[in-house]
Amino acid sequence: MKAGFPRSTVRLVAGSQTGASQPHEEKGFWESLKEFFFPEEDRYTYAEGLRRGGYLITVSTADANYQRALDILDREGAVDIDQRAQTWRNEGWKGYSVGGMGAASAAFATGVKGASTSEQVVPVIEEELKVGKREMGHGRVRVRSYVLETPVSEQVKLKDERVHVERHAVDRPLRPGEASFQNRTIVAEETREEPVVSKDVRVKEEVVVRKDSQQRTQTVSDKVRRTEVKVEDERGNMVRPDTRRTG
């Protein structure tokens, strides 16, 4: 998708198209939210929003994309569910309560079985603890390299050669073997040494940045709630609880 979230990670739950849903539709809203990791009171509030014609959009993504997903939803007109729930309460909506949950479930059951039935359902609810994990930042280590220039100087000995021409007045006879009356050219070149600078790059130290990981075990403690149903039968009959487990 253009927003960067794969379509498989986005889920849409549509509410009632008329704003006045039937009991079987209300049960469908509640069932559609059972897979989400919501507290019971939040699930009850979202179900009410669906019943009133709203839409529920969820995105499964990494923590790093959390704020970007919120910005997109806010830009597209997402509502604050807490403020909306307060508005409903001001209009007479009772909100979440254990008794309210029972009444809602009873209404769902009545809608399925038909208007002529007198059966009522009292749900026995039990919370299960689900522990997940998320990655949190714990500080940074920044290693930065930069170039420094340091003035240096060294002494070097240089040699200069200079040519001198001198003429001396003499009066002597020609020595044996000396050439006489011939053309002769002598060339003498002056030289001068100049310093030549070159640089040799050498590695003097290495800084290694390494990250390792360790696993640790942490005990997470919390409380889970469940409802107990006590049946008082004045007729003398014993009603045993249903100990069957599902899931």
Number of strands: 4
In this structure, how is the largest beta sheet organized?
Answer: 2 strands, antiparallel
Q: Name the helicity range.
A: 10-25%
What is the string of SSEs from the N terminus onward? EHHEHHHEE
Fraction of residues in β-strands:
5-15%
Describe this structure in words.
The chain has 247 residues and is mainly alpha-helical. It has a domain at 7-95. It has helices at residues 23-32, 40-51, 66-75, 81-90, 98-113; strands spanning 10-14, 55-59, 160-161, 191-192. The strands form 2 sheets. A two-stranded antiparallel ribbon has the order 1-2. It has a two-stranded antiparallel sheet with strand order 3-4. Helix 1 (23-32) packs across helix 5. It is rod-shaped and about 165 Å long. Mean pLDDT is 76; it is low at 99-117.
